[in-house]
């Protein structure tokens, strides 16, 4: 048979997708499954144009901007992201979707969040402007604008001193105390956004460090600064749409994590690695909520985002989180997340999940006081080969995680649920949720010393200066080892000379 005929014969054997199959190829499997139920489905529509190509765009950006200043990168990247979101693709999506009520336009990723009927989802997925349709989540009932329960008086903060205060072992071992004493650095000028379940901002050890939106008048029922959020004095709850971000009841997860970042010892015991950092309080751990929270953090000057939570089973939705995270880091936001507590429940490589399993997110592993890994701590590696648009880090060997370690607890004091006091002795509160704020606190010390350090360099320097524990070199139990604040601060300063 002539060669031309052989080629034609081979081509005829390649299966072609029908028009309907081609459209469904652009939908996440949970979306396809939901279409058969003939009911409205919450989705996140990823438009075609994005700042970073997947999967190699982030590494290329970091190489090209190695000498950049973080403040300049923030302005430039946000402007580019917003320009992409205004390029007409989102308008095309909304038109094909029939201008649905409650649709939201994102810019941290060029995407639209909406709840659509199966017919509208098919219309949207058929657009050339659409790259993929991810599964969304049902929104929490709206709480209304609400009110902040206490308006904290502004006061001038003097230099930090731990003289006369109790300083627990975890702050000594991570090197924070030496930075306070010898460098007179305690996180000044750095804003750490806490994406968590609410924080008792009235606790006496936190109230002096709570970030305040300077353009918002509290409890007047107005959006004074025109940012789309009413009375967002200390941050915002993006799940229920309210300004109140205070935790209630005995479950004070967000208060404990905030205290490890920046508890200032007003009640006699220092709990914070960076006791002069400011704390922006955000709520919203769904994909939509996190996207809105990241946008808010970037626009309102946050330097670090602490995420002490872990989401399983996202499938291809992991790719949306990765793109969102990489573009946030390009814009100068350091992302930190605890690596989870699933060693006994899940197999490798799914013990470390989202967001901590994303390459650009600093995944915080955990150690006890004796520098051993507790039996509950999740272990790496992580795989990305199965994720649409990425396909890298196949397992084995996978992506090595965690990146560095903090201290899981128990054994060091944390803030009490009341407006003052501590849980001390702390015999129960433990987990990688509390390793993460140790690392966020060290990052705050680094950025206090070197504010223009690009966000991705923070992870690199933390790893390069960590104290190796366990296996030699970076490994899937302890990462690069225990973070060392003094060495990391010096590394940050050297990097910007």
Q: Would you write up a description of this structure?
A:
The chain has 497 residues and is an alpha/beta fold. It folds into 2 domains: 17-135, no CATH class; 169-495, Peptidase S8/S53 domain (Rossmann fold). The protein has 15 helices and 13 strands. A 7-stranded parallel sheet has the order 6-7-5-8-9-10-11, sandwiched between helices. It has a 4-stranded antiparallel sheet with strand order 2-3-1-4, with helices on both faces. α10 links the parallel β6 and β7 (278-283). The longest helix is centred in the first third of the chain and has 16 residues, at 70-85. It is globular, with a radius of gyration of 23 Å.
Question: Low-confidence parts, pLDDT < 50 over ≥5 residues?
Answer: 1-12
Approximately what portion of the residues adopt beta-strand conformation? Answer: 5-15%
Rg over CA atoms: 23 Å
Gross geometry: globular
Question: What's the helical proportion of residues?
Answer: 25-40%
What's the average pLDDT? Answer: 96
End-to-end separation in angstroms reads 69 Å
Beta strands, count: 13
Identify the CATH class of the largest domain. Alpha Beta
Structural class: alpha/beta
Query: What number of structural domains do the residues give?
Result: 2
Output the number of helix runs.
15
H/E series:
HHHEHHHEEHEHHEEHEHEHEEEEEHHH
């Amino acid at each position: 048979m002539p060669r031309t005929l052989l080629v034609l014969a081979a081509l005829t054997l390649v299966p072609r997708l029908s028009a309907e199959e081609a459209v469904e190829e652009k939908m996440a499997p949970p979306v396809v499954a939901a279409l058969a139920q003939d009911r409205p489905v919450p989705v996140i529509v990823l438009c075609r144009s994005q700042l970073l190509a997947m999967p190699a765009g982030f590494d290329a950006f970091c190489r090209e901007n190695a000498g950049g200043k973080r403040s300049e990168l923030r302005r430039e990247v946000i402007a580019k992201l917003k320009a992409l979101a205004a390029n007409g693709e989102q308008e095309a999506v909304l038109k094909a979707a029939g201008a649905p009520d409650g649709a939201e336009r994102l810019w941290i990723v060029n995407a639209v969040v909406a709840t659509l009927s199966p017919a509208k989802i098919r219309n949207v997925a058929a657009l050339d402007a659409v790259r993929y349709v991810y599964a969304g989540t049902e929104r929490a009932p709206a709480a209304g604008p609400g009110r902040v329960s206490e308006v904290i008086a502004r006061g001038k903060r003097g230099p930090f001193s731990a003289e006369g205060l109790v300083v627990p072992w975890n702050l000594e071992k991570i090197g924070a105390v030496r930075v306070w004493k010898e460098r007179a650095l305690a996180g000044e000028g750095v804003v750490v956004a806490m994406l968590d379940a609410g924080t008792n901002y009235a606790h006496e050890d936190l109230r002096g460090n709570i970030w305040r939106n300077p353009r918002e008048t509290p409890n007047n029922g107005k959006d004074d600064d025109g940012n789309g959020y009413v009375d967002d004095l200390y941050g915002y709850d993006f799940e229920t749409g309210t300004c109140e971000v205070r935790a209630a009841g005995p479950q004070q997860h967000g208060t404990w994590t905030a205290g490890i970042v920046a508890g200032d010892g007003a009640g006699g015991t220092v709990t914070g690695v960076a006791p002069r950092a400011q704390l922006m309080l955000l709520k919203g751990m769904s994909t939509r909520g996190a996207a809105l929270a990241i946008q808010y953090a970037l626009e309102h000057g946050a330097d670090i985002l602490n995420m002490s939570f872990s989401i399983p089973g996202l499938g291809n939705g992991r790719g949306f989180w990765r793109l969102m995270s990489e573009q946030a880091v390009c814009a100068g936001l350091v992302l930190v997340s605890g690596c989870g507590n699933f060693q006994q429940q899940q197999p490798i490589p799914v013990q470390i999940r989202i967001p901590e399993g994303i390459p650009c997110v600093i995944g915080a592993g955990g150690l006890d006081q004796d520098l051993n890994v507790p039996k509950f701590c999740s272990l790496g590696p992580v795989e990305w080969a199965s994720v649409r648009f990425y396909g890298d880090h196949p397992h084995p060997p996978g992506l090595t995680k965690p990146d560095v370690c903090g201290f899981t607890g128990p054994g060091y004091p944390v803030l009490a649920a009341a407006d003052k006091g501590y849980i001390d002795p702390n015999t129960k509160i433990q987990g990688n949720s509390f390793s993460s704020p140790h690392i966020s606190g060290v990052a705050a010390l680094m950025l206090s010393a070197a504010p223009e350090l690009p966000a991705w360099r923070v992870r690199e320097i933390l790893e390069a200066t960590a104290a190796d524990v366990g296996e030699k070199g970076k490994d899937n139990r302890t990462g690069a080892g225990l973070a060392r604040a003094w060495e990391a601060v010096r590394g940050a300063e050297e990097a910007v000379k």
